């Protein structure tokens, strides 16, 4: 593999995974630059990754399986004055532009963290060196590996600063199975009731299943009502005509679950609370199984 290639590739018995080299495909201020997964190929023919928007320049640059730290709780933002920097784990030091509240969709100036990359045929490890800012500093190691039909993303975060790290992390999961549009061909399953207080009209919720009445023309968003904080959480998305699907297994305390999407993409989102005292470490992993029925 060339050290200068913009796409890093790993493969196993059934999966081929493409990962963007940090700062090439994506260089924005929202998502983690490491482990930005732009392609998953199952059995040489089934694809899963989609863009956030089909309109060039629209949205925040999300694609495939990309994660974000601090969508609601940015580290040190309230302590930074306009023109000063604050932490965005996996991305870099961002510059606070003014007195307004932090908004994840806004574009902030980024000073990226130094990142070392170690590549093997079936796994890639990103070592994000800590940069101190206002007594906050985090050393993150993220490994993406494949094993048969599984893609596993492993996180290890160590607080090497002097202040407590308190934020959240989730993976956005921009999914379209074989580029099939969002419609009644899909079913999304949870291990609890998905019925919610507010359900978009394009959705039908019955028990633990979400389906679509028609192809959405606008964004949709739903928070499954039966969710309670739990470990060993699983969701499963299947394209019924083809029998191709993906499930995410979360072997960590899940803080929140939501589903976002558009006419071309479905994004189940599973959140974890990140709370690390100085000198301590927090680790977790996300397991994705890609399958055919």
Explain what the structure shows.
- This protein has strands at residues 7-11, 15-20, 36-42, 46-47, 67-69, 85-88, 92-95, 110-112, 115-119, 123-128, 138-147, 150-159, 165-171, 186-189, 203-206, 209-212, 220-222, 233-239, 244-250, 254-262, 265-276, 281-292.
- The chain has 293 residues and is an all-beta fold.
- It has one domain: Beta-galactosidase, Chain A, domain 5 (Distorted Sandwich), CATH 2.70.98.10.
- The strands form four sheets. A ten-stranded antiparallel sheet has the order 9-10-11-12-22-19-18-14-16-15, with no helix packed on it. A five-stranded antiparallel sheet has the order 5-13-21-20-17, with no helix packed on it.
- The mean pLDDT is 96.
- This is Galactose mutarotase.
- It comes from Acetivibrio clariflavus (strain DSM 19732 / NBRC 101661 / EBR45) (Clostridium clariflavum).
